[in-house]
């Protein structure tokens, strides 16, 4: 009897290291004060819902053609002067023209590369187990859609630092592997 092992089961990966959860850097052009205090981010998943064709029998599902990206979230420690929280808050107020259209028009008039326009680019750099960058993920046309409350609580016995989470929508993201180092 022949012992058959598929080739895919007999291969050992080149890198056996696991990806650590706390090894990343994030850069938000529109909100530079958030960067230093960032505690947590997510690399959003993606969905490709199927297209269903109705038949008199069970529906037939075919490959979809419209990608749906999950939202990008950044959790950060709120700095003592609330500068980082207010950067996102002010951006959202201006987008939603809370007081008048002048704030929105001022944002719309700024070019994207200044980091002061309606949308911003966000770059997530993922680090390997040696804390060296190995991948850059660039999120395009980001806009904040949610900023969590800051909850002050005098009943806590230990001094806990306050955090907030900003949620962003974006049009797409690209990833690029960093060129490997040569020894």
Written account of the structure:
The protein is an alpha+beta fold and 183 residues long. The protein has a domain at 29-42 and 69-177: Pnp Oxidase, Chain A. 17% of the residues lie in helices and 33% in strands. The protein has four helices and eleven strands; from the N terminus they run H-E-H-E-E-E-E-E-E-H-H-E-E-E-E. The protein has helices at residues 7-10, 32-36, 83-95, 101-109; strands spanning 24-28, 38-41, 46-47, 51-53, 60-62, 68-69, 72-77, 120-127, 133-147, 163-169, 172-177. The strands form three sheets. Strands 1, 2, 7, 8, 9, 10 and 11 form a seven-stranded antiparallel sheet that branches. A two-stranded antiparallel ribbon has the order 3-6. A two-stranded antiparallel ribbon has the order 4-5. A hairpin with a 5-residue loop joins strand 8 and strand 9. It is extended, with a radius of gyration of 22 Å.
């Amino acid at each position: 009897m022949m012992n058959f092992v598929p080739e895919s089961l007999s291969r050992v990966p080149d890198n056996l290291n696991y990806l650590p959860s706390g090894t990343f850097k994030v850069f938000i052009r529109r909100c530079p004060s958030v960067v230093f205090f960032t505690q947590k981010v997510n690399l959003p998943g993606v969905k490709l819902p199927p297209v269903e064709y109705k038949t008199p029998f069970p529906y037939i599902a075919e490959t979809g053609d419209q990608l749906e990206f999950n939202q990008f979230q950044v959790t950060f420690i709120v700095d003592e002067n609330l500068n980082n929280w207010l950067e996102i808050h002010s951006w959202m107020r201006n987008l939603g023209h809370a007081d008048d259209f002048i704030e929105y028009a001022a944002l719309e008039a700024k070019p994207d590369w200044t980091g002061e326009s309606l949308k911003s680019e966000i770059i997530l750099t993922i680090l390997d187990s040696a804390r060296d960058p190995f991948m850059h993920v660039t999120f395009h046309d980001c806009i904040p859609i949610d900023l969590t409350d800051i909850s002050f609580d005098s009943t806590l016995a230990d001094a806990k630092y306050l955090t907030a989470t900003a949620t962003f929508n974006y049009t797409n993201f690209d990833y690029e592997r960093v060129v490997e180092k040569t020894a």
